[in-house]
TrEMBL record:
The lineage of its organism: Eukaryota, Metazoa, Chordata, Craniata, Vertebrata. It comes from Centropus unirufus. It is found in: Endoplasmic reticulum; Golgi apparatus, cis-Golgi network; Golgi apparatus membrane; Postsynaptic cell membrane. Keywords: Cell membrane, Endoplasmic reticulum, ER-Golgi transport, Golgi apparatus, Membrane, Postsynaptic cell membrane, Synapse, Transport. It comes from the Eukaryota. This is Trafficking protein particle complex subunit. Belongs to the TRAPP small subunits family. TRAPPC4 subfamily. GO terms for biological process: endoplasmic reticulum to Golgi vesicle-mediated transport. Its main location: endoplasmic reticulum. The keyword Ribonucleoprotein does not apply. CDD domains: TRAPPC4_synbindin (cd14856). GO terms for cellular component: endoplasmic reticulum; Golgi membrane; postsynaptic membrane; TRAPP complex; vesicle.
């Protein structure tokens, strides 16, 4: 069981806290000869696999490193254009590491805002008045759980589909937010949460949830 990440979104849809707790690593590194038997294309400021799958490398995976040098978007850390480098036969054999693209801070802000809008749409589509909005989105690899407080703050947890006790965890996170963010005299409501005690207690709660599942009485 695993809890992947936590998001806190204010009532205006702004991301005020995000924590990557357990990021599954599915990177695959292989040595290739020329010509490359995968089709790569630039997409959203990165180079991704557009066609061809092999040895754990899948369509949509991004180029993360070339010959041990990290790739930042479409260029390597030492300034080489990825597409140009890989189109030159003189650079082969070459070692390429593929994997899931890591979301940037801007992408996380955008996705949080999009979920806020989706949550509002879900509430409006409800045939009954006073719908709570979206409480869970499920895929084959993770579930997104959401708890909205009476003041409009949303707490979101992305977890393994088999992880138990998420409803209790969301309320535990709300308690931690109340105790260590709202009661902090230096914290301004609706603003980004930068509090060491909040971080520490949140991580302890996530670890406890992963190990024990549902929270017990008095937790």
């Amino acid at each position: 069981m695993a809890i992947f990440s936590v998001y806190v979104v204010n009532k205006a849809g702004g991301l005020i806290y995000q924590l990557d707790h357990h990021a599954p690593r599915a990177d695959t590194e292989k040595t290739f000869s020329f010509p490359l038997d995968l089709v790569l294309r630039p997409h959203d400021e990165r180079v991704v696999v557009a066609f061809g799958q092999r040895d754990g490398i899948r369509v949509g995976h991004a180029v993360l490193a070339i010959n041990g040098t990290e790739v930042n978007g479409r260029v390597t850390a030492d300034g080489k254009d990825v597409m140009e480098f890989l189109s030159n036969p003189a650079n082969y054999p070459v070692s390429i590491r593929f994997g899931r693209h890591r979301l940037s801070s801007n992408e996380k802000l955008m996705l949080a805002s999009m979920f806020h809008s989706l949550f509002a749409i879900g509430s409006q589509l409800s045939p009954e008045v006073g719908s709570s909005g979206i409480e869970m989105l499920e895929t084959d690899t993770f579930k997104l759980h959401c708890f909205q407080t009476l003041t409009g703050i949303k707490f979101m947890v992305l977890a393994d589909p088999r992880q138990a006790g998420i409803d209790a965890l969301l309320r535990k996170i709300y308690e931690i937010y109340s105790d260590f963010a709202l009661k902090n005299p230096f914290y301004s409501l609706e603003m980004p949460i930068r509090c060491e005690l909040f971080d520490q207690n949140l991580k302890l709660a996530l670890e406890a949830a992963e190990k024990a599942g549902p929270f017990g009485p008095g937790s």
